[in-house]
Amino acid sequence: MPSTSTPTTAAVLTPPARGAIATVSVQGPEAIALADHFFTSLGKVSLDEANVGRILVGHWQAEEDSVGEELVVAKLSPEVVEIHCHGGVQASQRILQHLASAGCVIESWQERTTSLHADAIVAEAKLELPRAVTSQAALHLLDQANGALTREIVIIGNLLEQSNFEVAEQKLAHLLSLASFGRHLTQPWLIVIAGPPNVGKSSLLNKIVGYDRAIVLDMPGTTRDVLHATTALDGWPVQFSDTAGIRVSDDEIEQAGIAKAKAAIKTADLAIVMHDATDVKPDELDQSLRELPSALHVVNKIDLAGDIRVPNSGEMLATSAVTGQGVPELITSIVSRLIPYVPQTHQPLPFTDRQVDGLRQLHCQVQRRQFDDALQSIEKLHSA
Ligand SMILES: Nc1nc2c(ncn2[C@@H]2O[C@H](COP(=O)(O)OP(=O)(O)OP(=O)(O)O)[C@@H](O)[C@H]2O)c(=O)[nH]1
Ligand SMILES: [Mg+2]
Description:
Blueprint: E1 9-12, E2 21-27, H1 31-38, E3 39-41, E4 55-60, E5 69-77, E6 80-86, H2 89-101, E7 105-106, H3 109-116, H4 120-128, H5 135-145, H6 148-161, H7 165-177, H8 179-183, E8 189-194, H9 201-209, E9 227-233, E10 236-242, H10 252-267, E11 270-276, H11 282-291, E12 296-300, E13 316-318, H12 327-338, H13 353-367, H14 371-382
Parallel strand pairs: 1-7, 8-10, 8-11, 11-12, 12-13
Antiparallel strand pairs: 1-2, 2-6, 3-4, 4-5, 5-6, 9-10
Helix pairs in contact: 3-4, 4-5, 6-7, 6-14, 7-13, 13-14
Bound molecules: guanosine-5'-triphosphate and magnesium ion.
């Protein structure tokens, strides 16, 4: 194969798993020649002769490999072809090997995506999009892939050029206030369910996720390790952690579980602290509310309780993990705690640590009126 200074690259664009078809993209000055080297169309039309946009069915064969394959090749431009082959992982890997043996540089889809987009934020959005687990999260990332955050940073740069530091500062502060939301588009919000043994923590988890994720027993100390279950609440990705009931225990395994439960509370975005409606101890409830004021406090087994005394401080919800009473209200409360403000469609927002760090630095520079440094930070945000 002739070589030029611009490399010809190949990447598998479809996910690395078994599927109906896999797509290999070849791009660069030798893309057509490389594909023609291995591919013979049914009508004996070469890709070189074929018009752009033509899709050809034919046979792919490498000399050193006795196994050929019938497949489809599309000529997308004079420098881009797409090969649609069998969806098994081996089929696409074999095509990559053939192309590599002829001098093609093999890239990952991430490298290909990054190289296709001059703006780093747009490239990052395209890389993060496949990781979005709910459609709502994907829509916000799609906005960023379509340039929402990039345009906002350009606007901030223009404001700085006009010495309008105040408005630039306000815009940056607003973007940073959305950082937690943006990061959670690809990483679920973490919710830990904690409380004394036997109050119904595992039962509540099962009720919310809709299947028997955790073992439920009428025996205190049933859950030992931290159990995770991922779901979506109102379209937002969340991960629940069910923990060991917190109590004084001589059991070594249980102690380890309790230590893990306490650690999980510290790292969670939200703790749900559960209490037993059939065994309400107002003093303990009051203490729990004081110790964990940002937690959501839930009195469970409400179906078994008549009149219960609810403490008069903080927020308290009543549920039954058996009948489901109060669970929709709990879900509404969880969502409004985690996402007090839902950004509008097309809202620019940062969604990677790199962007958040870069925006924080820029915000400081704008506050200190460091014009040149701020422009450099903007430059860095656009080009990773
Ligand atoms: N009637 C009623 N029973 C419940 C409710 N929630 C849980 N239970 C029962 O209470 C017992 C303990 O429930 P679990 O969900 O295992 O409690 P836990 O808090 O996870 O317990 P540990 O893992 O031991 O800390 C089981 O028999 C459940 O069926 C409820 O809301 N109403
Ligand atoms: Mg449990």
